[in-house]
Fold this protein.
Amino acid sequence: MTGIGNRKEDHINICINESITPGHCYWDDVKLVHEALPELDMDEIDTSARVLGKKLRYPFIVTAITGGFPGAERINGNIAEACSRLGIGMGVGSQRASLEGEGRRSFEVVKDHDVPLVIANVGAPQLIAQRRKPAFEDSMLDDAMEMVGADALAIHLNFLQEVVQPEGDTRSAGCYERIRDVCRGRKVVAKETGAGISRSTAERLKGAGVAAIDVAGMGGTSFSAVELHRARDAGDRGRESIGSSFFDWGIPSPVSVLWANVGLPVIASGGVRTGLHVAKALSLGACCAGAANLVLEEATQSADAVEERLMQVMSELKAAMMLTGSKSVEQTSSRRSVITGKCKEWV
Ligand SMILES: Cc1cc2nc3c(=O)[nH]c(=O)nc-3n(C[C@H](O)[C@H](O)[C@H](O)COP(=O)(O)O)c2cc1C
């Protein structure tokens, strides 16, 4: 296995076994207004949503997690099977390893299942030349999409992680132009990985031609924390210290959902752990919510375990829709929310 494969496996183990989220849940700062007289039957609630042109049974995507090492085939297979049963979307993790010749099957396994929305994944740093590595060519991006039967391509913006990790790709000049090129003829989702997207960045991304923005804000998985643990295990005190300083760096997810709303579909992610969080995300203007860590442990076990975890979330979403008097996702989106606490300070 190459360095990338080892790193991907480290990420899974650290995210399952270590503390990698900030102490505060920013979704708790958002409150929905209770409807005491909903005038609807729970059975008639329609949770379906259209996201990136695809009809989902619930407004939800399991966002990018992994691929590129032997154990990843099982993880992606379990997620794909559960997403296909539930009729929700799925993203795969960075396909860099497979584009460099390793672990294709761990991505191709997604095509064995009928997932209604599949999102391929490459990193913005790989779109430009890094110190000893050439930039990915357009044909490689098309290959990444074909490998998983993708409906869209996520370009992840993970510079927080790149600056904290020892082997990080820290060149970013020229990424914007390349994203603009890649958007020609492809449906692109611009995606953070845990630090959120500001209004000005969202506007620039819109100008580049992206089809949607996945905010992946601060409050859930912190890649700074993940790299802190890797640095600690490697005895790298300097990197450990950077990881610790930037542990809770970023824009809180609910704030980023508000700020990134520049007329494109917004996927709300970063610390989404319950159906109530999903309903709050909709009321803030997101077209759907997404989460990775929520199903990570279950994904190492079985498709049934992933499905069960996700069904808990969807049942809770339905309860929140009932209690806000919302018959549909559109109605949930039009419900008022109150921003309190730390998020209020931000907005
Ligand atoms: C183990 C793990 C690996 C991840 N790998 C990727 C990746 O390869 N590409 C990517 O765009 N995001 C990746 N992410 C980020 C997630 O897609 C998501 O944006 C982020 O974790 C915030 O959501 P969460 O709090 O629900 O985990 C990864 C997340 C986890 C937990």
About this structure: Residues 3-346 form a domain with the TIM Barrel fold (CATH 3.20.20.70).
